[in-house]
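Can you give me the bound-state structure? Components:
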Amino acid sequence: MALIRAFETRAAECFTRSELAGNIHLYMGQEASGVGACLALKDTDYITSTHRGHGHCLAKGASVDRSMAELFGKETGYCRGRGGSMHIVDVNLGILGANGIVGAGIPLAAGSALASKIKGDGAVTVAFFGDGASNQGTFHETLNMAATWKLPIVFLLENNCYGVSTEIHRITNTDRLAIRAKAYGIPGVTVDGTDVEAVFHTVAGAVERARSGDGPSLVETMVYRYQGHYCGDPAAYRPKEYLIEGKSRDPVDKARTRLLELGVKETEIGSIDRSVAEEIESAYQFAKSSPDPDPAAVIDNVYSSDNERSVLR
Amino acid sequence: MKLTVSKAIGQALHEEMERDENVILLGEDVGVMGNVFAITKGFRDEFGSDRVIDTPISESGFTGIAVGAAMRGLRPVVEWMYDDFITVCLDPVMNQAAKLRYMTGGQVKIPVVFRAPMGAGRRNAGQHSQCLEALFTHIPGLKVVCPSTAADAKGLLKAAIRDDDPVVFLEHKLLYARKEEIPDGEYLIPLGKADIKRPGKDVTILTWSRQVFFALEAAETLAAEGIDAEVVDLRTLVPLDWETVRASVCKTHNVIVAEEGVKRGGVGAELSAQITEELFDDLDSPVGRVAGLNVVSPFSPVLEDAEFPHSADIVSCVKKTLGR
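Here's the bound-state model for the whole set.
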């Protein structure tokens, strides 16, 4: 969690200094959700993520260097600079991709789960998405199919209450979104997404259920999105109480307090902070000093075969 | 062996499913019913419900599921009941399947085939009659195949299933019942290879799908008037077999494009532009275009027949092009 927070803090600084092109969407405030969920997964399990995906990918084990390099659009980045912040993918780590289209990762995740069911490989796929995506057709269509076919998947709905500027209760008629699971005959539960242990235990149960062939679950984690929709969005559409409440329940602070309660020494936490700081600085240097992609390679990899002919005409 | 186009397509699917257990079928009514055109009849009993999957009417969801499964190494063949239904599931095709290889820096392959019947002539009106190949050719990352004959449909579909890229495979529904000779034994037809269905020396007719047969009919009419037309069945629109196009145009020096889809922004417009840009000095006349009118496919048989091109339209376009 500390690593994700530090990664994004640095990314935001770089963005503000115009070192990054395009745009970034920050996961700050939601770290316990992605980390708690990914802790419940094996290395051989899969995730799909969202436009706000840095946290999910790092929690699933993505390299800090290659992630940072991708934000910088460099050839050493995960997608060789072709994807950017919204599209980090590492198939070898089971990261099937962040995604720029809200709700698009949900059926992709179910496809991964279908592949697991057909191959019998025992893997579980977690689809991360937000409250905004829960109003897309893909959410409802995929929950229905995954439930009917008992696919090994967990639908992880991170409810930060805002789709860009629109507060969720202005556009939906239920207090909680997890209740939608009922419509598809699967378990639906809402959990405090600022509490990494609570998320872990809830998702672990859902993963176990999926792995044993009993089908999907919908887990709604209640989280706070510290930043606006994108880095630099002043979020004037939100009441200031939202952020005050969120910061009073900061997931990273809560995890620290809990670790101290469990007997971890301050010095040990301090050493984690120091190693995180070093890792981030080193990733920043790696990204800055990495080469840009070769402009001549702009046509590469549109197709797996017959690429040049298929691109040129 | 003589087979209908629909049976040839069924045979391609069957052979590929037998050959590779990663090939699965998904779509509405493909399983228990065996597809509305009976193409996959009996498949579910033979290959099981895990591999022949009846989906709900959720095109966006099941198309996305197929793309996700392809990322994980399966080779899904998705069936849309009509190509017109692309309107409700374009995101998994256009933003996901087509883009993921590029956007991941080449990390993933998306070996998925999207099959769909297309075309006018069955009096199904505007939401069940379109030829939308031009829409798909506009999207980088997709390959686009539009077979005409039974033999081509079989060989091209087998190649499409083995291809590691997303392939949109459009079958004209008015061709399903055509019975034609197909080669014995297993064969593949590589994507991106046109076929000269009728050699000729005076004019080239570039075409694909059902218009191939109108073009062949037109060529016979023209032959009676002393005009020798070459009918080039492109078969695959992406990748395009430019070498065959170029060789034919350089031989005949006159060319028209015949397509069923609407004229504005059509594949013919693109072909015309490329030929004009690159082969201008070889042309004796401007590139002619025969295409559907820029209207909605009407229900009334009288109106529908007026909307899309027939052999007479090709004949008159050729004559105009040749100044005859």
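A couple of observations. Chain B has twelve helices and 14 strands. The longest helix of chain B spans residues 5-19.
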